Each structure stands twice: as structure tokens, then as C-alpha cells.
Amino acid sequence: MEVVIVPDAKAGGELIAEAMAQLLRRKPDALLGVATGSTPLPVYEALAAKVRSEAVDTSRARIAQLDEYVGLPAEHPESYRSVLRREVLEPLGIGMDGFMGPDGTAEDVRAACEAYDRALSAAGGVDLQLLGIGTDGHIGFNEPCSSLASRTRIKTLTEQTRIDNARFFDDDIEQVPHHVITQGIGTILEARHLVLLATGAGKADAIAATVEGPVAAICPATALQLHPHATVVVDEAAASELELAGYYRYSYAHKPDWQGI
Ligand code: GLP
């Protein structure tokens, strides 16, 4: 994988937004896989600025959801569908007709998971999947020890993830659902380009394990090592535990055919 160390979150956002813009110029109806959480917000802000300045056209772009809480009504402000509508679709000027996501309120959740997995393939697959990372190394909601070959399915959140996400639910962990639907790790690995963004010292251990640790389900993000085109963008704080940070800087600076990330 390629590791890019950026000075701060804003620079990471700019870099990834530019990669998305280049993709959309090449392929106007590209399917962008997006993540929730605080980390990707600078990406969406930078891409929205490009849309406003007409540096990129999103009129045919499509957006795919990574994961969702089970049981939260779609209109709940913290359902990931609502969050993505607010933070991604509206700022980018993309309507719900350009959006695909799993149904977290389905009576048959299992069938909804399988249907979403199939829909992603039928749509031609995700062109670029943006990922954040949990402090425990989860991607999407694939908690530690998720199968590295897993498909879209229902998962139970760890206590730590519910604690981490309580900030979106009035700091009340009781309001954080226990169950979620997440694209599986095998599903995520089918995207053509994986871009993981991590910022802040709280992610430093998870990033060191992801980039330099052995591939192991205990740290689901290590599955990125198996992907032919994975980019890990980290700020200085998130890079602070990387043994080979000097090499990643050198390698990126000497990239022979620089075409973005
Ligand atoms: C949630 C999401 C993940 C996200 C993670 C980290 O668990 N399901 O997709 O990467 O939070 O969030 P943050 O970026 O706010 O640290």
C-alpha cells in the first residue's frame, strides 16, 4: 500500500478530494464509496468547494454507503443515511437517485444485507472507497476478528465502538444501537481503489498495526495490505507510531509517475 503523510487533516482532505475529482473527470458516473465519522469531513468539504467552483461536475456521480445502524429509522438524524445526505449528498449536489445504501429498518435484515451486496456489484462496483478507521482497527463496522472474506452482513458493535459513537447520541451510550449492517471486508476489497484517512494521535496504534503489522482479523484494516491499490493518508499524529515513516515520505516524494494517489 502507499502511505502518504500529510501535515494536517485539511491537507489530507484536499489530497483525497483531488483524487475523487480526477476520478469524476475520467468517469463522470463513478461510484464513490463514502464513510461516516468525523475524519472524512475535510474530504467532503474540499470536494464540495470544487463543486461550487465548477472544478468538478457531480451531476452523474453516484454515492454508496459503507455501513448503517440497524433499527434507526432512516429519518433519524444519526442514521448514516441521514448523516450522508447532510454531509455528502447535499453539499455535492447529488440527489437520492444517485445514492445506494442498505436498509437498516428491513424486517429481514439478512436479506437486506445480501440485496445490498448484490446491488453494489450490479452497479458496476465501487470505484473509490473512502474509509476511516476505528481505534480498534475496524473499517466500516467490521469489528476485530471479522472474517477478512466477509460480505455485507449484520454485526454486533463492541462496547468501545458504542462508547466512541455515543458523542453522536447526546453522550448517552444507551441510545447507540447494538447492531449494524456493514459492507464486509471481502466486499470492501472489491472496490477498485481503497483510500483510508486517519488523523490524530488516537489512531496512531491502529495505523501502525494496519500498515506494518501482520495481516490479521484482530485488526480488520490490515486487509488493505491484500488490495492492489490501497492508499493510507495520515497526518503527522496518526503517523507517529510508524517505524518506516521516513521511507514513506521519501518514496512519495520520489514517486516516478505522479498521478495523484
Ligand atoms: C464508525 C464508522 C467508521 C468510521 C469510524 C471512525 O465506526 N462506522 O466508518 O471509520 O466510526 O470514526 P471517526 O472518523 O469519527 O474517528
Automatic annotation (TrEMBL):
Per the entry, what modulates this protein's activity?
Allosterically activated by N-acetylglucosamine 6-phosphate (GlcNAc6P).
What top-level class of enzyme does the UniProt entry assign? hydrolase
The protein's site described by Part of the allosteric site is found at S146, R153, K155, T156
**Active site residues per record:** D67 (proton acceptor), D136 (for ring-opening step), H138 (proton acceptor), E143 (for ring-opening step)
Q: What GO terms describe the biological role, i.e. biological process, of this protein?
A: carbohydrate metabolic process; glucosamine catabolic process; N-acetylglucosamine catabolic process; N-acetylneuraminate catabolic process
Q: Name one GO cellular component term.
A: cytoplasm
Q: What keywords does the record list, in alphabetical order?
A: Allosteric enzyme, Carbohydrate metabolism, Hydrolase
Q: Which SUPFAM superfamilies match?
A: NagB/RpiA/CoA transferase-like
Database matches in CDD domains: GlcN6P_deaminase
Q: Which residues form the Glucosamine/galactosamine-6-phosphate isomerase domain?
A: 10-225
Q: What is this protein called?
A: Glucosamine-6-phosphate deaminase
Q: What is the lineage of its organism?
A: Bacteria, Bacillati, Actinomycetota, Actinomycetes, Kitasatosporales
Q: Which gene encodes it?
A: nagB
